[in-house]
Structures
1.
Amino acid sequence: MTRILVADDHPLFREALSGALEPYFENAQIIQAESLDDALAKLNEFDGVQLVLLDLNMPGGEYFNGLITLREQYPNIPVGVVSGSDTVEVVAQVMSLGAQGFIPKVSQTREIAQAIVDIIGGKKWLPDGMEEELEKVDDELKVLLQRFRELTPKQIQVLSYLRAGLMNKQIAHEMNVTEATIKAHISAILRKLEINTRTQAVLLMDKLQLS
C-alpha cells in the first residue's frame, strides 16, 4: 500500500488532490493534515508514510519552517513541496533545505502522479525547465541559501516575527519564552547569516522572497 500524507490548510485542495490521485495509486491511503502540528501528529500516528506533500504556507509552516521541521524530525521520509509560489528563488530554497521535489499547484494531475512515483522511487522531481533555471541562480543567492539553511525552526520563527515588526518583548510573549532567549536567538541568527542588524535580516528575507 502506498501511504501519502497531504499537508495543506485548504480542505478543498486536500480533497481534490486526494481524489485526483486515487486512480493513479491502487489501494493508496491518502492521509490529510491541515497544519504543521497536525502533520507531525499524523506522522506519529501512522507508520510507513512514504511521502509528504507539503504546502509551504499552512499554519506553523510559514517561512519554510514546516519543511525544516519535517526534515529534522523525519529525515527518512521524502518531502515534495506543493506550492503556488514557484519563483526560482523559492524553488532554490526548497531544494536547498532538503525537499525531494517541487510541484507547482497548477500542475496537471498526471504530472503530480509522476512526481510522486519519482520521489518515492528516490529521484528528485522538478517541473520541466526548472533545473536549468536553478543552474542560473547567482552565486550570492546560493551563499544566502546556504547560510539560511543553518537556522533552526525556532530561529526562523523569530525571523518571521522580526519581519512583522515585533520587538523582542512582543516576540517573547508570542513564543512563551523569556526576552533573554529571544536576544540569544537573534544573536545566533545574525552570526549564522553573517550580518549585523535586524534590518539586514529583514532585507535578506525579502531578497529570498520569503512570504
2.
Amino acid sequence: MPGLYYEEFAVGETIDHAKRRTISEADNQRFCDMTMNQQPLHLDADFAAETQFGERLVNGLYTMSLAVGLSIPETTDGTIVANLSYDEVEHPNPVFHGDTIRARSTVTDKRETSDGERGVVTMRVEAFKIVDGDDDVLVCEFERTVLSEKRPADDGRNGDD
C-alpha cells in the first residue's frame, strides 16, 4: 500500500505498523561503522559488561531510524516531499541485540502550506520492544514532521473515476 496523501491523514489517528524487525549484532555493528560511532557501550562486550546494563546496547539512533523505516509503508511511502524535523526524542529503555521492535504512529497535527499546494503533517512515533508475556516496552519516541504531497486530482483513491 502506498503512503498517505495529506488529505488522508486524520489528526488523532493511530497506526500500529505491521512490519517488525529483530535487531542483530551485525545490524548494530554496521550502523555504528557507517556513522563512525565507536562508542564502546555499543561495540565492546567487555566494556559493556561492566556498565549498569551488563551488555552492549543497540545504538539509539539506529533504534530511531528503524522506527521511522517501520512507519514509512503506512504513512509516507511515495507521498512525502521531505522530512522536516525530528523533535522531542527520548529513549526511555535500552535495546539489546535480539530485541524485536515494532512501531506506532499517531497523527498529532496537520496544516496546509501557505501556498496550499502541500501539507505539513506531524506524527508522534513510538517504538516498542516486544516482550513475551508482558506489555511491550517503550524504547524510543519522537515527533516526526513531514512535508506531504496532496492527492493528485486524477488519483484513483479519491473516488473520482
3.
Amino acid sequence: MKIPTVHAMYWDNIPSSILSKQREVFAHLDIPLQQERADQQPHGLWMNEVLERLAPEDIVVICDIDAFPLSHAAYLAAVQHAQEGALFGLAQFSNHKQGTQVYAGPMFMAFRKSMWMQLGSPTMRSSKVNDAAEIMSVLAREAGIPVVMPAVSACLLPKWSLGNEGVFGIGTFYGKNDFFHLFESRKPAYEAIFHAVADDVLADKPLNFRHYLEIVEQLQAAESGQPPRRRSWWKRLWK
C-alpha cells in the first residue's frame, strides 16, 4: 500500500522553525508531507483546492502546520480508518459557532475522496453554523458513516471547552498519545513547546510531560513578570 501524502498549509506569519521541525518529524516517521504556502487564504478554501486535484480513489489526509502524529503506527491507523470508509479526525469543538457536537477536526483528518463525493462534495469552508470542515462530520453522521475522533488525552495550557467532553488548548495530545497539536503557532512564545515534543519524537524518547509543563510555567512567568514557582506543593501535604 502506498502511504498517502499529508497536506499542510501555512501563512507567512508561521515561524520558519515550526515548518522545518514539522518536516523533520514527518521525515523521521517516514510519512510523506507536502507543506503548501497559502498566505491569507481561508483554510476551508485551501482544503477545497486539495480535494479538487486528487482522484476519487485517493485517501485525503489534511494536517495543520503545527500538528503531527507521534508515531508511524498512529498515522497508519488513521489511514486504515479512511480506507474502510470512515471519517477520521481529531476531536474538535467550535466554541465560536452554533454547532453543539464535537466533530472530526482538520488539524489531522483522513477520508476517502469518494466518501466526500458521496456526501455531495460539500465545501470545506466555514459558514455561520459550522467551522472549516465541520460539515463533513454533520453529513457523515446523517448518512450513517462512522466518524472516528481520537479524544484529548492531555493538554498543557487549557483554553477552550471541548463541548461537554472536556477541554483543549495550547499543546494538546490526542488518543493514546497518538497525535499532537500545538495551536496558535503564529505566536513565537509557543515554539518551545512544539520543539520539545518534536525533539522527543525525533530522539525516539518517551514524551516528557514534566519538561513540557516546565516550559509552560516559564512562559507564564515571563508573561506575569514573576519567577517560575517552585513545584514543592506536595511537601506541604505532609506538614
4.
Amino acid sequence: MAFELPDLSYDYEALQPFMSRETLEYHHDKHHKAYVDNGNKLAAEAGMGDLSVEEVVKQSFGKNAGLFNNAAQHYNHIHFWKWMKKDGGGNKLPGALQKAIDSDLGGYDKFRADFINAGVTQFGSGWAWLSVKDGKLEISKTPNGENPLVHGASPILGVDVWEHSYYIDYRNARPKYLEAFVDSLINWDYVLEMYEQAA
C-alpha cells in the first residue's frame, strides 16, 4: 500500500510554545513529505509497493539502505505526530501504563530521566524510544531512522532528535527540547493505545 503523508490532528499553532508553527510546517510538510515521496518511489522499484510500512521497514533493513531510511522515517513520523498533543506530557499517566513503568522502569521519575538521557546521548541524528520487548518496557536509542521494529521490539513512544525537530525553537539545546517534549507534549492516551496493541 502506498505511503501517504498523514494530516496532523491539531493545527500548526497547537503545540506552541513548546513546538512552533514554523517547526511543524517544515518538519511535517517538507521533511516527512520527502520521506513519503522517496519511500514510494524506492518501494515500487524494490517490488515492495504493496506491503505495509511496517513490513517494508523490516524487509529492507540491512538490505536496501535508501528504502529503509525513508520507510523507517515515514513509520517513525506517522506516530511522532500522534505522540504529541496540546496540553500533553506530565506525570498523570493512564493506570496500566503507570503500573508498567513502575514495575519495569523504576517509576515515572526514573523513566523521565532515562528517556531524556537516551535522547541527549544519541550522537548525531536519531531517536529515543520507549518500547515493549519480551513483554517488558525498555528505553533505547537508535541512529538516523532506525527504530525498535528491527530489533524485535514494539515502539510505543518515540522522540525525534534530528536537528530539524528542534533547531528552530531550541537551537543547540537538545536537553531543553526533550524536557519540553516529556513535560508538555506527550500524548499518553496514544502511548497507552500502542502499549495495549504491543502487549
